[in-house]
Structure formats: C-alpha cells, structure tokens
TrEMBL record:
Keywords: Signal. Residues 1-26 form the signal peptide. Pfam families: DUF3500 (PF12006). PANTHER family: DUF3500 DOMAIN-CONTAINING PROTEIN (PTHR37489). This is DUF3500 domain-containing protein.
Amino acid sequence: MKKSTYLTGLLLAASVCRVGSDQLLAAPTARPAAAKATKVTQATTAVADVVTAANAFIATLSTTQQSTLQQSFTATNVAKWSNLPCGSSCRIGLQLSSLTTAQQTAALAVVQAATGTTANEGYNEIQQIRAADDYLAANGGGSGYSSGTYFIAFLGTPSTTGTWMLQFGGHHLATNITFGNGVVTGATPKFEGVEPLSFTTANATIFPAGTTVAPLSSEASAMLAMLNGLTTTQKTAAKLTQTFNDVLLGPNTTEGGSTTFPATKVGIAGSTLTTAQQDLVVAAMTPWVQDADDVTAAALLNYYKTQLATTYISYAGTGNFTTNGDYVRIDGPNVWIEFVCQTGVVFRSNIHYHSIWRDRARDYGGNFYTTVLGTRDVTAASVFGVYPTPITAGNSLQVQLLAPAASASYTLHNLLGQTLTSGTFQGSSVAVPTTGLAPGIYLLSVETPTQQTVTSRVQVY
C-alpha cells in the first residue's frame, strides 16, 4: 500500500499468542493489554487496492476454500497466530501449499498490496522469512519447515466500509493488519524471526538461486547502533537485571496477566538522550514500522517521534546480539518493540532472532480490550466507528453506527470514569462535541437497544 491518512476511531489493546522456543507445538490464544493513544491510518483509496486484490483472490477459490479463508472477526480468531512451526494447529485460514500456483500468486498479491515496499522490509522481508524455512527444511529441519506452510485468512469481509483483518503467517512470521471503514486501523501485532541469520538460496522457489538472504539484518544493526550510541553511564542505567529467553509480548500474552505490557517502564527515558541518540532510537524502530505500508509507516514513525521523551530503551545480556539471551526493548506510550537472541533450533551452534512489534492503541485496530470502567470485554468495531482521532479540542467526533438504531445514546468519560458529556440520537450517526476538553485520552461509550454498552478510546490534542 502506498497512500495513507490520519483518521479513524476504536482504540485499545487486543489479543495475541505467546512464544516458546521454536518447537513443533501448538500455541494457545489469548489477548493483550491496555492502551493509550491514537490511530494512524491509511487512506480509503489504498485500502481499496487491498480489497480489490482480496476479492480477486476469493474469486479463484472454491466455496469450501472460501469458507476456510473467511472467518469471523472475533477476539478468539484475531489471536490465532504464532511464531512456531505448528502449522494449522495454531493458525486459521488457507495454507499456501494447498493452493494452485495461480491461487498462491493471488494470495501473495493481497499480502504485497497491504505491506511496505522498502528493501529488506515489508513484503520483501516476508518472502525472505519464508525462504529461510525452505533452507531449514533442506538442512536437517525436516518437513515441519516449508515456505508452503504459511497461512492466509480474512477475518471479516474485505471492504472499504466494514471492519476486517488480513492475517498472514507461519514459522517466524505473524502479520496482522486491521482495516476499519476504509482505513488501516492497526498494523500490529507483527512477529518476525529468522534462522539462520543469513544464508544463500540454493533454488529459485522464492528468490533467484544464489540470493543472499538476511531478513532481520537491518533490525539487528539498528538496535546495535542504538545501544552503542549510549555512554557507559547510560548503558549501565539501561541494563536490566533479569534474563530473557524470548520476547515477553509474543503469542499467548493475556490482558491483565503477568505477561502483558508492563505497567512500569524500565531503562532510560528518551528525555535524557541527546538529539543524536534520539535519532538512533527512531532509526531502531524504523525497520519494524516499515513493514507496514509505506505511508502508514511514515505516519506512525512521525507519531512515535512525538513520544520520544517518554519512550524508554533497555537491554539485557551483552548488548552485542551475539549470545543466547541478548535482548533489547523500546517501550513508548504506544510503540513496543522487542528483539532477542536464542540458541538455534536447527543450527544449534548458532543463535537466531525473535522480535515483536506491538502498539498499545492499535493492536488489532484497537478493537478488543477491557475498559477501565470494569465492563466486560467489548468489540466496539462491531457496533460503531468514530473519527477523526486524534482530534483537536473544539471539533466534533463523528460517531457512525454500523446499523441504524431507533434510539441510541453516547457518553464521553475521562479515564477516571467521570462523565463529561452525553446524549441520545436516532439513525446512524451523531456528532459528539469536544469543546473545553484538555489534551489526553477519553472513553466514548455507545449503547443501542440491541447492543449493551461498548467503548472506544479517543485522543484529543
């Protein structure tokens, strides 16, 4: 995708699955954590390209294949991803190897349309990770590894008006891109890993034979540069005492549990860094964020830059990314990136990489979370959309119901649960005033006769 805009509503944290070492295991699913912030989204025109590609792919499939591809957009289904080589036991959708060549081409065209074009990132990186699985299979890994053992699923119906999600993943890869009302509402969670770190292709299955493949080389070098840019004193302050054998917020993280976004940030704050050091932090984020479509990536990076003062960096291990347990984290108000070294599974004498990019407000488009008001898990996306968010105080939030209602009500709260404004309306839409609101995060709740209260977070500038 190439175009983007800053729009849309529905926030907060979501679901995922947790990682272990890369063994042939099934990974259960669950959901992650709190959120704060805003949405950076991609324009309807570009989403239309993804929808066109999605519909073209659907048209190549049998009725049975279509029913496997298209699943419900639920908290359970969005969490059905893993980094493990566990095939369909931990994923949903169609396996590439079950498709004809034409169908595979159409499936990958959807993924390519929805992801970035930067060299070594985005779609190119996805293909490199798939090629790595073929290399593992050819070098003692066995039949559990294959570029064909990657799965594609549509959660919801691809459109420029509703909420849906593209899921594509397999061993060392989980791509989760959420769309709502014609915009991209989330490009995370995004898991990437690779074993071995670098190799040369022996066949032309994905790349020409003799191609050097090193999909996470940009990520590793950028994180190393960030840590090497610290002074000795800063590096001491940034070092964590605990050890890590994997990322914290991979598959199986559960909202409210011990493996959700930590409540307390650790390491050193961006506010203590020089401008040059802050630039290295941004550069370290960039390879992950550029996996999103190009303009969404640029918008996200610009937004993350505004949060640098309260973004923390920390690490464990040697800081060189050469040893099992070497670990680094970037933890901002929104952005969360982890990168860790593990002992190889197939190449036991070498390390391999795991990484995760999350966003507290945008995981799964922010559609699944538990509100701070003590209500149960909600799916605001199935009831209403709200835009623009972020919004400048004084302008009106536009609430759009997915189905017209004879009577409906809205309430805008602050994070303490205090009601700031409320009202009733009929039909499909209403304008919610924000006059006099201070910059910050607010909760917008909507109730209709057929749906109990659902809540979305919005940000006011």
